[in-house]
């Protein structure tokens, strides 16, 4: 007899839903024909408030906290992005990482304090080209010298482009089915299955709804909240490096996006519980331009001379207590298993594969009760 696989429904098609599909198929060898992704918004769609993933900078950075779980998520993702990049490039053939929307660039990060030793000890173990910056290098940074700084080789995403290519790979290579549909209750997920699936003895539902987890029936997680961020995107072919500075009451970042448009994302803000992604503010734009041009003067001398492509805002799906990666089984039906995988806040691209790996491991193991 052939091996039996579970049926899988993934709710959500942001970077967390796609990473979950990738871990299931490429790392755990579950056939994609067993998997259906259902989401209100799919790669290619845009929604200011309901779909965060296209709005990310996005790169791999030190923005995330220092707890053990996060250190694991960040490391796992950093180390596995090379496999992901290769898998996608092999599938598409003849294309390069700039086209794919997942490339490499140098990065420098600065802090106005000495960061947690656990974080730095962890980073130095795996970041490529990791280097602690000297006092002389710190003193060159304006307006005041930061307390600490590192340089390393990071990952850069062109988020909207990468999401579409990632989705194309999951559909084309693995035959994962994608359905565009909003759910009001998580129980509805059982209706969305891949028609090619061979009925398994278990049905796994991965809840990757990001901010949507706040209002989705059977989840209604009110620990979930938005952290708004405004960005200014300029055309800057001469900047091919990341530069970020973390202060107690500000976050300044400069992130180049792979691709022919030579976009440079300038940010930003971390505004807790602010749901307004529709509007952008001129004073925030001015503040972002002032901070980023001070941090990396080679962007340009005057803000007025920059070619601004757009100003946008997005909502990071934050959660008090950190991401929820938790398994539930239905009390009267142990064949139905829900695995929550949301709350990636400002680090879904850089930590999301590690989160998804943990979620998939929980889903494929045997334990626990659900309220569905
Ligand atoms: C300005 C900004 C800059 C950022 N920069 C970075 C960065 O540089 N690096 C980084 O790692 N991260 C960055 N982030 C964070 C990153 O964007 C998020 O962590 C990530 O996109 C979260 O992905 P997600 O899949 O959880 O959520 P989302 O992308 O919001 O996806 C949620 C999915 O669930 C679906 N959904 C929700 N509710 C329902 C429902 N009821 N029924 C059906 N479907 C539903 C949605 O339609 C969507 O498909 C940034 C974010 C912002 C706003």
Describe the structure.
- This protein has 372 residues and is α/β, with parallel strands linked by helices.
- The protein has one domain: D-Amino Acid Oxidase, Chain A, domain 2, CATH 3.30.9.10.
- It is 27% helix and 27% strand.
- The chain contains 8 helices and 15 strands.
- The protein has helices spanning 15-27, 68-92, 97-100, 117-126, 135-139, 159-172, 282-295, 348-364; strands spanning 7-11, 35-39, 102-111, 131-132, 148-157, 177-180, 203-207, 224-235, 242-246, 251-256, 263-267, 271-272, 307-319, 324-330, 333-342.
- Strands 3, 4, 5, 8, 9, 10, 11, 12 and 13 form a 9-stranded mixed sheet that branches. It has a 6-stranded mixed sheet with strand order 6-2-1-7-15-14, with helices on one face.
- Helix 2 crosses helix 8 (348-364).
- The longest helix has 25 residues, at 68-92.
- The protein is globular, with a radius of gyration of 21 Å.
- The model is unreliable at 368-372 (pLDDT under 50).
- It binds flavin-adenine dinucleotide (FAD).
- Residues 11-17, 39-41, 50-53, 55-59, 182-183, 208-212, 216, 229, 231, 255, 267-268, 314-317, 342, 344-350 line the site of flavin-adenine dinucleotide.
């Amino acid at each position: 007899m052939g091996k039996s696989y579970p049926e899988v429904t993934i709710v959500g098609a942001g970077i967390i839903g796609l990473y979950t599909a990738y871990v299931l198929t490429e790392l755990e060898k579950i056939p994609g024909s067993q998997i259906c992704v259902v989401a209100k918004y799919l790669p290619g769609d845009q929604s200011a408030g309901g779909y965060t993933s296209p709005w990310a900078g996005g790169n791999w950075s030190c923005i995330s906290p220092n707890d053990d779980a996060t250190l694991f998520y960040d490391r796992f993702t950093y180390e596995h992005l090379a496999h992901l990049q290769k898998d996608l490039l092999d599938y598409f053939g003849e294309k390069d990482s700039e086209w794919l929307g997942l490339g490499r660039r140098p990065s420098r990060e600065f802090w106005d304090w000495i960061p947690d030793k656990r974080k730095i000890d962890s980073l130095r173990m795996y970041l490529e080209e990791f280097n602690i910056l000297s006092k002389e290098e710190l003193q060159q940074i304006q307006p005041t010298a930061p307390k600490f700084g590192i340089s390393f080789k990071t990952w850069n995403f062109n988020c909207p482009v990468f999401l579409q290519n990632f989705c194309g790979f999951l559909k084309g290579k693995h035959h994962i089915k994608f359905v565009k549909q909003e759910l009001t209750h998580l129980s509805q997920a059982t209706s969305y299955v891949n028609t090619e699936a061979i009925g398994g003895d278990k049905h796994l539902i991965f809840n990757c709804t990001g901010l949507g987890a706040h209002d989705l029936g059977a989840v209604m997680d009110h620990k979930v909240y938005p952290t708004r961020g405004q960005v200014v995107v300029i055309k800057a072919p001469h900047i091919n490096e990341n530069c970020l500075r973390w202060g107690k009451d500000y976050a300044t970042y400069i992130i180049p996006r792979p691709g022919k448009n030579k976009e440079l994302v300038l940010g930003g803000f971390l505004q807790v519980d602010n749901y307004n992604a529709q509007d952008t503010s001129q004073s925030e734009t001015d503040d972002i331009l002032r901070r980023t041009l001070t941090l990396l003067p080679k962007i340009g001398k005057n803000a007025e001379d920059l070619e601004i492509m757009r100003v946008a805002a997005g909502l990071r799906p934050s959660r008090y207590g950190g991401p929820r990666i938790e398994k539930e089984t239905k009390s009267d039906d142990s064949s139905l298993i829900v695995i929550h995988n949301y709350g990636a806040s400002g680090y879904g691209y850089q930590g999301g594969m590690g989160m998804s790996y943990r979620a998939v491991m929980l889903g494929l193991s045997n334990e626990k009760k659900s309220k569905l």
